[in-house]
Design a protein that fits this description.
Layout lengths: L8 H10 L4 E3 L15 H11 L5 E6 L4 E4 L9 H10 L4 E3 L7 E3 L3 E8 L9 H18 L5 E3 L11 E4 L2 E10 L13 E8 L4 H15 L13 H4 L7 H18 L1
Parallel strand pairs: 1-2, 3-4
Antiparallel strand pairs: 2-6, 3-5, 6-10, 7-8, 8-9, 9-10
Length: 262
């Protein structure tokens, strides 16, 4: 099966080779060497643990309850406080995340992959090589389900960017990063990087996109997204394939294996 390689594949391979093995964590603290808060708050905990040296490199595969997760830039919108109050009353509490981009939905049926690591001394670390590192297991996951994967922009999708995972011209996963160290050669013992992906497994994309649109409407920002620019893994699979919680569990199992084995 042919597919477009992730951006900077050679740089991604060099980066992976220079990193220690990832400690693969689940969605909660059970059995983990660090305690992670649930949901997006655990991303900060993951970064702190890696930056502080508790973990050399860590991967987290997780789900979260319904929420609209905004960037720090979104938190400065004129109607942000109103949006938090209104959306919480409508069942979509608003949280603020570590990584950049625009607002995204979290909900059961959306699986997240987070990678945290310190820049290694053995390879220059760039935005492109970090995205390649993150996208490689996701591409292999999708191809394992018999689907061709691509990487690129999808106009009309929420939090659009050059490093979406795309199937059939529609966005299946979005990606973002949070840096506490500058690109380039490593500074030993200092800094950490978080690379995050949001994979639409089996979720109502119209409802999820509508929540993001509602956030920006109340926050008084001129942004509107199209649910048809997105696709879920469940929609792409044959009718005989698992759905719902069974599919989410299978995706989580495969992702953990891919990250641990890469």
């Amino acid at each position: 099966m042919s597919r477009k390689a992730p951006p900077g594949p050679a740089g991604g391979a060099r980066l992976r080779a220079a990193l220690p093995a990832f400690s693969v964590l689940g969605g909660g603290p059970e059995g983990a060497p660090v305690t992670l808060r649930p949901g997006v708050a655990g991303e900060g905990d993951l970064l702190d643990a890696v930056e502080g040296g508790t973990l050399a490199a860590a991967a987290r595969v997780w789900e979260a309850p319904r929420a609209v997760v905004a960037s720090r830039a979104d938190a400065r919108l004129p109607g942000f406080a109103d949006a938090r109050r209104v959306l919480a009353a409508e069942g979509w509490p608003v949280e603020v995340r570590e990584s950049g981009g625009s607002a995204v939905p979290h909900a059961p049926g959306i699986v997240h992959l987070s990678l945290a690591f310190r820049p290694p001394e053995g390879a220059p670390t760039t935005l492109e090589s970090t995205y390649a590192l993150l996208l490689e297991p996701l591409i292999r996951l999708v191809e394992g389900f018999g689907l061709p994967a691509d990487v690129g922009e999808v106009p009309g999708s929420f939090c659009d960017g050059r490093f979406n995972l795309v199937v059939g011209g529609r966005k299946l996963a979005g990606t973002a990063q949070r840096w506490r160290a500058g690109p380039g050669p490593a500074i030993p013992g200092r800094g950490a990087i978080l690379a995050h992906a949001l994979l639409l497994v089996d979720v109502d994309r119209s409802e999820a996109t509508g929540a993001v649109n509602r956030f920006y409407q109340v926050a008084r920002a001129d942004r509107h997204f199209d649910a048809d620019a997105l696709v879920t893994l469940a929609e792409l699979l044959p009718e005989t394939a698992p759905r719902g919680r069974a599919l989410v569990a299978e995706v989580g199992r495969r992702l953990r294996g891919l990250v641990a084995g890469c």
